[in-house]
Design goal:
Elements: H1 2-35, H2 37-53, H3 60-73, H4 77-113, H5 121-150, H6 154-177, H7 182-207, H8 218-252, H9 255-279, H10 282-291, H11 295-322, H12 324-331, H13 334-355, H14 358-366, H15 370-419, H16 428-456, H17 461-483, H18 486-505
Helix pairs in contact: 1-2, 1-6, 1-9, 2-5, 2-8, 2-9, 3-4, 3-5, 3-8, 4-5, 4-8, 5-7, 6-7, 8-9, 8-15, 9-11, 9-13, 10-11, 10-14, 11-13, 11-16, 11-17, 12-13, 13-15, 14-15, 16-17
């Protein structure tokens, strides 16, 4: 029962990211063309600054998910009320603090820290001040998302994400086609975030019809903050590492180079980050199985999830890295391909290495050891940013990409080696033999064949389409034959036939 429910939640969670990501990636070329490379670089800079300010988030969402789920299982409405109230107050305060800091520092950041062309300075300052309001609303939105997730209603969160994640990029294109610019694009997103919050709150009201906000007692406050404290380290490190590289590039290489890097790195991150949505539902499952002492069942579930997720990420990495030049050429334009193909290929490999730590981190935290993942993430972020600074200073955006890869390789290997057999109840040898080997071995062979064919054939659009289709088919065949369990293949086929039968009859 848990496996089926987990699969359904994982699929819903994935769908909530997949559809918006497809729409967003499809609209990026139009947005870049209408804004221009420099203005898009400013937009990337504003997004990175706002994202970096989110480091003040102490990650109470992690504690809320854990405790709301527990209170809901015990039918403790009073506990749910206190937890939701505490989270809303904390995120309103954090959002307000961050918004005030962003608004006050906007002029200094644009003129004193980053290389923004003089003609774009006034608009950049006004846009960053507007984004300060968006930061406040965004903090509330992030917390409200966690409540349905704690209740294991990923279907609701997914549906809302699909609607807003698809509409906002499409409306952004409409705003630009009507002749408006960067400020209006950010204004649209701020307004959409406010409506998003309202829809989430109405959904929560339906899920929890007896919800009454009550300030929590000391015991609940201590439990929430205690659990969230080390999770905060992971979030702090992740946000710092995710956004600070763009701030470094904006300061050292300028906003045009930042636009080239952002487009390439965002594509790699969006594609390889999709499977994290499949993995994320393992956190509450690991917590439940650990609490009930079902470690053997947890180990079996973990190894199967690892095999599937690693294969999906490895397959995506191959398609992106091998065909990086063609992807950017036909998706964006030849200039982006010249400037960003290496970045895209290297960042795809880096993102794949990072993805290897996702499932171990979730199980580690579910077993009650967020301190381990938090400290590792903090050290990784500090060392990584130092290496990236050196890379950008010496070799520009290519140096940034290679720095990401070096850091990912080192810290992913160290983290995986450390937690298995300690905080994750699976031996490293089992992980390699049953989790990695079935997925990676065949993918490496397909990658070598695809890379060789890509160099031998002319790089026309027809050749690209044929090679991409052939590589995808080989990867799919390998996955079906050697990665997916027979029982899972049979179950999937039964579902396909069940859905197909009524359609065929009509």
């Amino acid at each position: 029962m848990m496996t089926l429910r987990l699969a359904r939640n994982a699929f819903a969670n994935l769908l909530g990211a997949l559809v918006p990501a497809a729409v967003a990636l499809a609209t990026v070329p139009i947005v870049v063309h209408r804004l221009g490379d420099a203005s898009y670089g400013v937009y990337s800079l504003v997004t990175a600054i706002v994202g970096y300010f989110a480091v003040i988030d102490i990650n109470v969402t992690a504690g809320s998910v854990k405790f709301i789920a527990g209170f809901n299982a015990r039918k403790d409405q009073h506990g749910i009320d206190q937890t939701v109230c505490f989270g809303l107050v904390i995120y309103a305060l954090l959002g307000g603090l961050g918004a005030l800091c962003l608004f006050g520092a906007a002029g200094y950041l644009v003129t004193g820290v980053f290389s923004v062309p003089p003609a774009l300075v006034p608009e950049a300052i006004a846009t960053l001040k507007l984004a300060a309001l968006g930061f406040f609303i965004g903090q509330l939105q992030n917390y409200l998302h966690s409540v349905p997730q704690a209740l294991m209603r990923y279907d609701i969160v997914s549906a809302i994400e699909i609607v807003f994640g698809s509409l906002v990029p499409l409306l952004t294109v409409a705003v630009l086609l009507l002749g408006f610019g960067l400020f209006e694009v950010v204004l649209l997103r701020v307004l959409a975030s406010a409506v998003h919050c309202l829809v989430l709150w109405l959904s929560i009201a339906r899920l929890l019809p007896h919800l009454a906000l009550r300030w929590p007692g000391r015991a609940i406050r201590r439990q929430l903050t205690g659990f969230s404290a080390y999770s905060f380290l992971s979030r702090f490190a992740s946000l710092s590492y995710t956004h600070a590289d763009k701030l470094i590039i904006g300061a050292l290489a300028g906003v045009t180079a930042l636009a080239w890097f952002t487009v390439a790195s965002t594509l790699a991150n969006r594609l390889l980050g999709l499977t994290y949505r499949l993995s994320g539902v393992l956190f509450p499952a690991a917590s439940a199985l650990s609490a009930s002492g079902e470690l053997a069942r947890l180990g079996t579930l973990y190894l199967k999830a690892t095999r599937y997720v690693v294969f999906l990420n490895a397959a995506i990495m191959v398609l992106v890295a091998v065909f990086a030049d063609q992807i950017l050429r036909y998706w964006m334009n030849p200039e982006f391909a010249r400037q960003g193909a290496l970045v895209l290929a290297v960042m795809a490999v880096s993102q794949f290495l990072d993805s290897l730590t996702s499932l171990p981190s979730l199980v580690n935290d579910g077993m009650g050891h967020p301190r381990v993942s938090g400290l590792f993430a903090l050290v990784r972020a500090g060392a990584g940013l130092a290496v990236i600074y050196v890379g950008v200073a010496g070799w520009g955006i290519d140096g940034a990409a290679w720095a990401h890869l070096a850091v990912s390789l080192l810290f992913s290997a160290v983290f995986i080696g450390f937690v298995h057999g300690r905080t994750v109840p699976t031996r490293l040898r089992e992980l390699v033999l049953r989790g990695y080997a079935p997925s990676v071995a065949g993918v490496v062979a397909v990658a070598l064949c695809a890379s060789t064919a890509e160099h031998l054939f002319d790089r026309s659009a027809a050749d690209f389409a044929w090679l991409l289709a052939a590589t995808t088919a080989l990867l799919f065949a390998h996955g079906m034959l050697f990665v997916i369990d027979k029982d899972d293949r049979d179950s999937a086929w039964r579902h396909v036939k069940a859905y197909w039968r009524p359609l065929r009859g009509s």
